[in-house]
Design a protein that fits this description.
Elements lengths: L8 E5 L4 H5 L2 H10 L4 E6 L14 E6 L2 H5 L4 H13 L2 E2 L1 E4 L4 H8 L2 E2 L2 E4 L13 E3 L6 H13 L14 H11 L6 E5 L11 H14 L4 E4 L6 H11 L5 E3 L6 H10 L2 E5 L2 H8 L4 E4 L5 H4 L6 E4 L27 H17 L1
Helix pairs in contact: 2-6, 7-10, 8-9, 8-13
């Protein structure tokens, strides 16, 4: 067992993406229990740096991985040297690479101190050769694998627990300055996704909202997403024709603002995207739509999560793009009325409690 009592300074490497970073949080909570006096630094992509405001192990320093600059010929070398200097500025007692890529493992190896810990089975084979300690963990959900990596160091064999994420009153104040006080009865819709095959139709989200409004007219529907999701948001709004109360927030909130909308929501209905993992991390009831990917490995984690995925031969194909049949992907043909009925049940039960 690793002598965690002697660890005073830790570096975690997990540059992206949002969901993957959130899947590290239970492992960080476990690490904090065994290293209560240690400081934690985190190597992360700038786009996701603010999510560390919610880390269960407070982050002392955020080391930014400027991926775009490192990917350009003109800036690659100076950016790499800059990052290398940052990584070597401090001496770490423990370096953990949760990313498992050759690039992230190389960054870990540039640090002073160590040991450098990573998975024995990495996403890229060459990555493991940069580790001084390779830990084999069982296949399973990414969150469980991250926790298992830390538990090999701590010796803890208990069940994985989702940590309570810290409050962020400053982010809430900023959000309410933008959007006004949030409704007490709020359902969050997350209709965007990075893959075409993960992006269930706006008509599905509009149909769920319309039917649920008929059942529970007091609820407001907040639409969350990036600036690129505004077209989808607009289609949902147009389909609802002003008959359902909507709070359109796509492209308007920061990452921390999005977290506070999710925290205020009684239910989150989402595609397979980064924000759905944020909702699960906040222990919110989540309805998640899956098509090409496997929820058992990378889906939102927790007992309050419900997965909707059709039992057809083409699901879990891992294709980013698929050809529609009669204007709709086969795996996207979910029943809006059934989902709204399930949402009604969840929301009425929460009101009773």
């Amino acid at each position: 067992m690793f002598e965690l009592a002697k660890v005073k300074r830790i570096l975690v490497i997990k540059p992206s993406s949002l969901g993957d970073i959130l899947h590290v949080f239970p492992a960080l909570a476990e690490l904090r229990i065994h290293c209560p006096e240690a400081t934690l630094d985190f190597l992360i992509h700038p786009a996701f740096a603010d999510i560390l405001d919610y880390s269960p192990f407070p982050v002392s320093e955020r080391i930014l991985f400027e991926r775009k600059r490192m990917g350009r010929v003109s800036t690659m070398v100076p950016e790499f040297l800059k990052l290398a200097r940052e990584l070597r500025r401090k001496k770490y007692d423990l370096v953990i690479d949760f990313q498992g890529l050759t690039r992230s493992a190389l960054f870990a190896s540039l640090t002073r101190g160590g040991p450098v810990v990573g998975f024995a089975q990495t996403r890229e084979t060459a990555a493991k050769w940069f580790y001084s300690r390779r830990i084999a963990v069982a296949p399973g959900h990414a969150l469980e694998r991250n926790s298992a990596l830390i538990r090999e160091l701590t010796g803890n064999n208990g069940p994985v627990k989702l940590p309570e994420l810290p409050a962020n009153p400053a982010a809430l104040r900023k959000l309410e300055t933008l959007a006004g006080p949030l409704p007490s009865r709020l359902v969050a819709l997350i209709p965007g996704a990075r893959w075409q095959s993960k992006q269930f139709p706006p008509a599905l989200f509009a149909g769920i909202a319309r039917r649920l409004h008929q059942l529970l007219p007091d609820y407001v529907f907040a639409i969350i997403g990036a600036g690129g999701d505004r077209k989808i948001e607009q289609e949902i709004v147009e389909r609802l024709r002003g008959e359902v109360p909507v709070l359109p927030l796509a492209g308007k909130t920061s990452l921390t603002g999005m977290m506070e909308v999710l925290r205020a929501s009684s239910l989150v209905i989402s595609n397979d995207s980064g924000p759905v993992h944020a909702a699960a991390a906040l222990n919110k009831p989540v309805f998640a739509f899956f098509g090409p990917t496997c929820p058992e490995k990378t889906g939102p984690y927790g007992e309050r999560t419900r997965i909707y995925q059709l039992n057809i031969d083409c699901v879990r194909c891992m294709k980013r793009n698929c050809r529609p049949v009669d204007g709709l992907l086969r795996c996207h043909r979910l029943d809006a009325d059934k989902i709204a009925a399930d949402a009604f049940q969840v929301l009425t039960q929460s009101q009773e409690n």
